[in-house]
Write a structure and sequence with these properties.
Blueprint (H helix, E strand, L loop, with lengths): L2 H6 L26 H5 L23 H22 L16 H5 L2 H4 L11 H13 L11 H7 L1 H6 L12 E6 L12 H5 L4 H11 L4 E3 L2 E7 L3 E5 L5 H8 L5 E3 L15 E3 L3 E2 L5 H6 L2 H13 L11 E4 L11 H4 L13 H8 L4 E6 L2 H12 L6 H19 L4 H5 L2 H6 L9 H8 L8 E5 H6 L1 H11 L7 H9 L8 H4 L6 H22 L14
């Protein structure tokens, strides 16, 4: 179960219209919910916690005694719940303040929610929430970290990846001295191989090919290593899988062993799934192993053309983790000294730029309103409906509003606890916030931004833009037709299609929420299609 799978199962309340009033949180009537009761997270990654109280099974020696004990427990449970109230939708993280009356009641004047979360949820309230959020939107530039601070937190990575790469290769590749036993299994401790049973066949092949590709010079052995030439970095539910599948068909393009390693955003920190706890950090060597299949092909080509010193190898390697653009949720557990505004001191792109400043990035975007609904349908497990989505949207908007009243917009976008508390991922659709931060370290010509709507209606147009951006050579008509005319990948499941579209009221409120962010994106790229006022520029 993924993190989003887990979160979407926390609240499955049916709704009939904007006027219905199911409670997100139930609190004492005399106390208004404090912001920190929702946003403060206990930074103990080893604790595993649950939501509602649980009871140990009592050992009973007779059926009568057992029924009596169970009855007493049930009565106690009901009375206690009626008196104190229950947390209906807990975050996957432990909120340390929920059971602390002092913190719950502190700062009532400045840090309380503008609405009690059990109040009437009508369309008027939703409009007010949106108005509050949009009136507090301020785009700001970030202060770039020093290289020495980046090295402090990733000393091992910087000791493995060199500062310069081999010439006449488009990919950043190098020869790394191999100090291990040449007869031992080089992938025996790779965590990707251990946790990904589906790809063990690939690793079996790599084991056999490894020794053949060791380069010996004197008494030392060297292995050929590569990082990706380009990244498909986002966003989820915006067509990244379809783009990945089409690029894989290009004769000069290779990818990692599997589509989404999520190393930069998650595995580097050791996070697999919240439901499984935290695991050992994946070292950079495990990540580099995923490129070995493609690296061996580049190495073979170099050896065949060793006499042609000016020959430029054309094969490029890509990586397609759709979390790379936006997912910085792990920062709160590993980085100290957040900025004065409560923002992360480092972002994913800072580390990528430090090791490969010439990398290229492809971003696939989509109308954020539609993206959010697709995200909900894809990651949700049970009780999905347009009504349920409507309720989750409003709950998320209220949480986001409460944050932006006290903190900077960027701080709220990167707020790990808030992101995990919201039932739907509103923040993922705030494209311009992430892109502006990427443009603080990478040049604009290193980033290609596409729209799913254009890709869906004219794949030949978008694929040619990608080919030009990656400096790929011309294709035969047959190969180009294979790439551009193949069926779309990862489309909506029939069961989700049967649920129908979102409610008109939900669409309207989400459009109001995303409009100022879309306007800033359109202004930044001088392209009104990012306003998403029409489906495609080809229609």
């Amino acid at each position: 179960m993924t993190e989003m799978d887990y979160k979407y199962t926390l609240l499955n309340v049916d709704s009939e219209d904007c006027q219905k009033r199911p409670a997100l949180f139930h609190v004492d009537n005399n106390n208004q919910m404090n912001l920190f009761a929702v946003l403060e997270v206990k930074r103990d990654i080893n604790r595993i916690w649950g939501g509602l109280p649980s009871f140990r099974k009592a050992k009973v020696y007779s059926i009568g005694l057992g029924l009596t004990v169970m009855s007493l427990v049930m009565v106690s449970y009901i009375l206690t719940g009626d008196e104190k109230g229950f947390l209906i939708t807990p975050s996957p993280y432990q909120y340390s303040t929920l059971n602390s009356p002092g913190l719950l009641n502190s700062h009532k004047t400045n840090l309380s929610f503008p609405f009690n979360l059990s109040s009437v949820r009508d369309c008027t309230n939703m409009k007010l929430v949106i108005k509050t959020i949009t009136s507090n939107i301020k785009f700001s530039t970030r202060q770039l970290p020093d290289l020495k601070d980046l090295i402090k937190y990733e000393q091992h990575m910087f000791s493995i990846v060199p500062s310069t790469f081999l010439p006449n290769i488009k990919n950043p590749c190098w020869y790394e001295e191999y100090t291990g036993n040449v007869t031992a299994d080089p992938y025996g401790t790779n965590l990707y191989a251990l946790y990904s049973k589906r790809f063990r066949t690939v690793f079996d092949y790599l084991r056999n090919a490894f020794r053949e590709h060791l380069y010996r010079q004197g008494n030392k052995y060297y292995r050929f290593r590569c990082l990706p030439y380009f990244y498909i970095i986002g966003q989820p539910k915006c067509g990244t899988t379809d783009l990945y599948d089409r690029l894989r068909l290009h004769p000069d393009v290779r990818f990692t062993t599997f589509k989404e390693p999520h190393w930069w955003t998650r595995k580097r920190f050791g996070i697999i799934r919240l439901s499984e706890g935290f695991h050992a950090r994946y070292p950079v060597e495990d990540y580099l192993d995923l490129f070995d299949l493609a690296a061996y092909q580049i190495q073979d080509h170099l050896q065949l053309n060793s006499s042609r010193s000016q020959h430029k190898h054309n094969i490029i390697i890509g990586e397609a983790s759709a979390s790379t653009l936006w997912d910085n949720n792990a920062w709160v557990y590993f980085y100290e000294n957040a900025t004065a505004e409560g923002e992360p001191p480092f972002l994913i792109q800072d580390f990528i730029h430090a090791v490969q400043p010439n990398a290229k990035f492809i971003v696939m975007l989509r109308d954020p309103v539609e993206r959010l609904y697709s995200d909900y349908l894809y990651f949700g497990i049970a009780n999905k409906s347009a009504d349920d989505f409507h309720e989750k949207v409003f709950e998320s908007l209220q949480l986001f509003e409460s944050c932006i009243l006290e903190y900077s917009m960027k701080s709220c976008v990167y707020n790990t606890t808030l992101n995990n508390a919201m039932p739907v991922r509103l923040q993922v659709g705030l494209y311009i916030v992430y892109i502006l931060d990427w443009l603080t370290v990478f040049d604009r010509n290193q980033m290609l931004v596409l729209r799913l709507e254009d890709h869906a209606t004219n794949r030949k147009y978008t694929m040619h833009k990608v080919f030009d951006f990656l400096s790929l050579g011309p294709l035969t008509e047959q190969k180009e037709a294979e790439i551009t005319k193949s069926p779309a990948s990862n489309t909506r499941r029939q069961a989700d299609k049967n649920l129908g579209p979102m409610l008109p009221a939900t669409r309207e409120i989400l459009k109001d929420f995303y409009t100022p962010f879309n306007a800033k994106l359109a202004q930044e790229f001088k392209d009104d299609s990012f306003l998403w006022e029409k489906k495609s520029k080809f229609m």
